[in-house]
């Protein structure tokens, strides 16, 4: 199951742009294998004897648990490090932190409030660095989303995925990795909340955007750090709620996606979140499987 080139294995995974199409599809195929074989311990000896540092500057549920469990299931030792437990709080640079941790660890995962700090860490490190989440990118989530689509529809090529609401890091990563996978990604956001032109097709009207969509995706409207503008954000984004009416405007086979945590009644209705067409819980589970495949590809001496 080696990647199509050495491109991914040789470097970091910070935005998803490090992958070519062959590498991405091979990674998703391996994630499917690991998922099917989890109960039999498939991959349990992939990373035996290795150690992976997991740095968290922000609270985390899915990223922390999925990476910690996934690292252990591959036979490696996960070391969870909170930002306030490191010398970063006393002024040590992220570059120097990367240089030092590379002498101890075989890989680093970081969830950070700054893309620049993650880039500095990666530039200083001599081991692979994985972006667990930054303000601009959430590539591991997008991998899980693509695996979920592949499970539901069989093939990714030509699928239409429409993201509605706040054009944030999730929307950006979906656009980047969706394009690589052959998925047509559309983003529908009000003025002031859009991602950059050129990353995805932009359609202002959410009902027009979801026509013939195979999947409708949304995320929270008030993320960590947005609390001061919460009232304005809720008002601006209210027409973009993922609800039964919006789902009905899409393809008859369309599924609902959300990266969680969700706020039922805001960006998504409870009826859709917990309804029969929701694939949200599959998405959450699939973080584990794609991240195990990613760790194998980046760290395993056998690949």
Which regions contain 5 or more consecutive residues with pLDDT less than 50?
A: 1-7
The largest beta-sheet arranges its strands as 7-6-5-8-9
**Element-level helix/strand string:** HHEHEHEHEHEHEEHEHHEHH
- Alpha-carbon distance between the two ends: 7 Å
Mean pLDDT: 95
What is the global morphology? globular
Report the β-strand fraction as a percent range: 5-15%
Q: Structural class given helices, strands, pairing?
A: alpha/beta
Spatial extent as radius of gyration: 19 Å
List how many beta strands DSSP finds.
9
Can you summarize the main beta sheet? Answer: 5 strands, parallel
- Helical stretch tally: 12
Helix content: 25-40%
Verbal overview:
Helix content is about 40%, strand content about 15%. It is an alpha/beta fold and about 300 residues long. Residues about 1-5 have low confidence and may be disordered.
Give keywords.
about 300 residues; alpha/beta; five-stranded parallel sheet; four-stranded parallel sheet; 12 helices; about 15% strand; disordered N terminus
Give the topology:
Blueprint: H1 7-10, H2 21-36, E1 51-56, H3 62-73, E2 77-82, H4 94-101, E3 107-111, H5 115-124, E4 129-133, H6 139-153, E5 160-164, H7 169-181, E6 184-188, E7 201-202, H8 206-209, E8 215-218, H9 230-237, H10 244-248, E9 255-258, H11 270-273, H12 280-299
């Amino acid at each position: 199951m080696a990647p199509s080139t050495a491109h991914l294995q040789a470097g970091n995974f910070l935005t998803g742009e490090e992958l070519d199409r062959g590498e991405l599809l091979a990674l998703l195929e391996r994630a499917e294998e690991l998922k099917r074989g989890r109960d039999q311990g498939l991959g349990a000896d992939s990373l035996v004897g290795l150690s992976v540092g997991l740095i968290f500057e922000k609270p985390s549920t899915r990223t922390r648990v999925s990476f910690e469990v996934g690292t252990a299931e591959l036979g490696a030792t996960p070391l969870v490090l909170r930002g306030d437990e490191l010398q970063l709080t006393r002024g040590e640079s992220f570059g120097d932190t990367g240089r030092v941790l590379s002498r101890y660890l075989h890989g680093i995962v970081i969830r950070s409030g700054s893309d620049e700090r993650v880039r500095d860490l990666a530039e200083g490190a001599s081991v692979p660095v994985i972006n667990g989440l930054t303000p601009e990118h959430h590539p591991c989530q997008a991998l899980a989303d693509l695996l979920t689509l592949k499970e539901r529809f069989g093939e990714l090529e030509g699928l239409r995925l429409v993201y509605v609401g706040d054009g944030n890091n999730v929307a950006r990563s979906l656009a980047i990795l969706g394009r690589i996978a052959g998925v047509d990604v559309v983003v529908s956001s009000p003025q002031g909340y859009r991602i950059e032109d050129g990353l995805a097709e932009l359609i202002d009207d959410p009902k027009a955007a979801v026509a013939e969509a195979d999947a409708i995706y949304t995320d929270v409207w008030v993320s960590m750090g947005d609390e001061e503008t919460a009232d304005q954000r809720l008002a601006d984004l209210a027409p973009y709620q993922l609800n039964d009416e919006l789902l009905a405007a899409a393809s008859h086979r369309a599924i609902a996606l959300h990266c969680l945590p969700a706020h039922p009644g805001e960006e998504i209705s409870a009826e859709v979140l917990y309804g029969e067409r929701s694939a949200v819980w599959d998405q959450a589970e699939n973080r584990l499987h794609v991240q195990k495949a990613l760790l194998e590809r980046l760290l395993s001496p056998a690949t």
